[in-house]
Amino acid sequence: MTNQLIAFLAQYLFLAVLAAAVLAWWRLGRSDKRLFLIYGAVASILALMLAKVASAVYFDPRPFMEHQPSLFYHAPGNGFPSDHAMLSFFMAGLVWRFNRRVGVALLLLAAVVGWSRVAAGVHHAIDIVGGAVIALAAISAVLWLSPRLTTLYQRLARVNETA
């Protein structure tokens, strides 16, 4: 693969994942669109908090800061976790909840985003894995909690009706 293609994928492929997620949302029914947005909002807050903590706890200098060349300019700093990977895996995981086939395709694209960021010399593999784990953990936590919170909300609504 040419360096130009790798650099292009590393910088812009995440936008294709984001656009595909928007199209997947567009095709949902009204109630699923609402759930998609609610799950996405809550899980994104959780993912951003987890990423902030992770980057404070673990510092991983970008490969080009260790005298390895990169294929394009990137600001130096902590590469952990990868924002591009986190966003791509986040959107793929969210779409997977509503459309398994499209979600799996986006998970594969997210893996390509991660691979290209490593191949371009702007991240180490641990940065990609960290972004993916944080994103998928946040989505999974929200999806696991969702039915439990719905049940609690329904119980509270019944208590309010009888009061």
TrEMBL record:
InterPro entries with a match to the protein in the record: PAP2/HPO, PAP2/HPO_sf
The Phosphatidic acid phosphatase type 2/haloperoxidase domain, residue ranges: 36-143
Protein keywords: Membrane, Transmembrane, Transmembrane helix
Keyword Acyltransferase: no
Transmembrane intervals: 6-28, 35-59, 103-122, 128-146
SUPFAM superfamilies: Acid phosphatase/Vanadium-dependent haloperoxidase (SSF48317)
Stored Pfam families: PAP2 (PF01569)
Keyword set includes Transmembrane: yes
Name of protein: Phosphatase PAP2 family protein
Species of provenance: Candidatus Chaera renei
